[in-house]
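User: structure tokens for this one?
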Amino acid sequence: MMARSRNIKPGFFSNEHLAEVDFATRLLFIGMWTEADREGRLEDRPRRLKMALFPADNVDIDAMLYSLHELEFIDRYSVDGRNYIQVVNWAKHQNPHLKEAKSTIPEKPAVEPCPVKTGASTMQAPDKNSSFPADSLSLDSGFLIPDSLSLDLPIEDQKPLPVAEAPAAPTNIQVLKPKAPRQKTEAQIANTNTWDAYTIAYLDRYGVEPVRNAKVNAQVAQLVQRLGAEEAPQVAMFYVTINDSFFIRSSHELGLLVARAEGIRTQWLTGRQVNAVTARQMENTQANISAAQEASRSILEGGQANAFLRRNR
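Assistant:
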């Protein structure tokens, strides 16, 4: 996703329907505009939206999107197995720049209306010689009222059947109350944010989600402990973008990030990726600097000639 500048009108804040959702959901709706393309469409990927709009907050993006969909502010749909979002009434409120790239997200398929049956009724037409569909359904026939159901029974045989008494309702019924949702700890939130950041970057690079198991969960927790809750998600995303042959051969395995966490953090802070080529360049540069410093020291001290001074002696 690439963030874009969008318009927000004063009427947004007084919309009575938006007032039905919480503050975070309203903020999500605004943030989605900056992630949508020129047609108001974006991929329906809650985890990625969270990292783009709420990287440091414990919010349920999928539930918030569902609320906006129910209120018809957005339309969540699928095409060929992929999920997308269309911001409703986009063209009424946004005016994208003319040079903005065209949308690559397919529109929601049109829903064909159900055909109206105009044929003959399914009810059987009356018989030409009778007011009833067929003689077999005539009230005068013995088909509907056989002899065993004859109403000409003796009066003494027409006694009402006994009614069974209902059992007494138990008095010890306990109503189970739903359990309150467990609140996540700060460590759990940090671990979730870090894993989400790593997954998003991994999906962008490899097109599949990374494997998650007990071992990986422990590695995520260790990374957060070493780098902190704020830096761990950012470093995890940066790590997957490093074009080092060693990392690429291992498909940017999370364990390598944990093993080299501090060094990769330094690269992230400096904005400079270090691979085998850049490492050799830095090594050669440092060697040249050391030789120059040695030559300068020899000149000042009148010492022996070296590679820089041999030609002048």
